[in-house]
Amino acid sequence: MERLFKDLSADLYRSFIGDNPDPIFVLDEYENILETNLAVTKLFGYSSNDFLEMGYKSILIPNSDYDVDKRVRGESSAYRATAYHKNGQLLHLQVKYLPVLDNQQLVGIMIVIKDMTDLIRTRTALQETSERLRSLFESSADAIDIIDLNGDVKAVNPAFEEMYGWKEEEIVGRPMPTIPKLRMKEVNEKRKRVTDSYIKGLEVERLKKDGSSITVSITISPLHDEKGNVIAYSGISRDISESKAIEEALIRSEEKYRLIADNMTDLVAVINENGIVNYVSPSFLPVLGFPPEQFEGKQAFGNVHPEELHEVRGKFYDLFRTKDGCDMEFRYKHNTMGWIWVEAKGSYFIDEEHGKPFLLVVLRVIEEKRLLREELKSMAFHDELTGLPNRRLFQEKMHQALKEAKRHRRKCALLYLDIDKFKWVNDHLGHSTGDKLLKQFSERISLVLRDSDIFSRQGGDEFLILLPEIEDEESVRLIAARIMESLQQEWVIEGNAFTTTSSIGIAIYPKDGGDTDKLLTNADKAMYEAKKSGRNTYRMYSQVSSDLKN
Hints:
Domain PAC: 75-128, 200-252
Shape: elongated
Mean pLDDT: 84
Protein name: Putative diguanylate cyclase YegE
CATH architecture of the largest domain: 2-Layer Sandwich
Number of helices: 20
Strand order of the largest sheet: 2-1-6-5-4-3
Enzyme class: transferase
Keywords: Nucleotidyltransferase, Transferase
CATH class of the largest domain: Alpha Beta
Helix content: 25-40%
Structural class: alpha+beta
CATH topology of the largest domain: Alpha-Beta Plaits
Number of strands: 23
């Protein structure tokens, strides 16, 4: 085996094994380690000399799909395995066992490894997230349906069953029965155009199981897999038949309209072309805590949140010009609850008796709907245990921060840190204590960071901090020192008192790297050197790089 590799040119060897991004073990026919590449040290944290002493079998723990027979016969095989990094972190791996033959004789073996840890963690996180989403899905007051790419029903919630009369088991796997057949093609085409954003407030006719039709306001959103591909669509709908009846009744007869409006739970207002309120429904009192007379004869937009006031006023005044309809969401003042989110639909009409134009505005409180949407968004971008930005959100924020730094010629700093002796905490005090340590660790560090700093949990006990604006390296050292100081106090969790600190690696943009990947790599190297120095310290990559050169 050694002879074969000596026959390879240095460039070919370096290209195939030395520079290969996948960890590779080169073994002789007796499974003794002859060589490992740099990717092995990066993945496991052990040096080549460490592996020569330990052997690779002491690290890799095969899973149930391990095929002993193939290995005995000297055949190629692939199996899943687990292993522990030198720092105690659990790794999930895909292992390829490749025999090397010379004249049909086994002369060596290559073990090629793929790190599946992030994929396994993501799948686990998605499973936990799906359980929370299922709870929100089941308890929502709005009707929710999930449709696959073929237009077939995947799931509906109890509110959907109540609104339409169909049970989930009756329609799963079938085209959505609530869509009129003549509209099915149009609906499917419109749904396929929704890829990155969503369509909200779409007013459509839908059919109930008993054959009757209702008018609903529906929001259609794409659902993505972890690669960003659209795999299904969700529809959140609400019956607005009552509100539509109000609009139609107003056109036919103001007297009939008032009778209906005075007895509905939605908020109804009539506004003239000068923005003065002519009428508000009695529901303003029980829903918003304000009596109707407080609005009538006054400007219509006094209770709109200042941040949305300009847009709301502009859209509603545009209706007098376009004579069209519009819908929007904005914050509106409640008498006791402060600012709440409402959904408003505006329609233009002419008062036939006086020939004057007015706007009919129907508002509905959508706090629950907004909270559900924000919760879904937050869960996609934040770590569930600590509430910190997750890997996906951090990558986006870091990419934007580096663009800004390049444009304004500023420096940034990336801090890569983990928890010293975290494996000991999990093994001796239990995973519950470990989880609480992760939360308290993130809380302590958050207290010493600036509002502009970006703090993220990457998984396990690994964290990243981006300092988007720094004056010099000394200011970064001061922040690192404050972080170290915040971790010196003893931890008391679930009756256990113990100490553990952190090792921090620091890379500076642009000196230590001009892009995200380079900065991460160099900050990781600096953290590794901090651990080698005895933990509970930090290392600048520039210092590490200089030491290596010397």
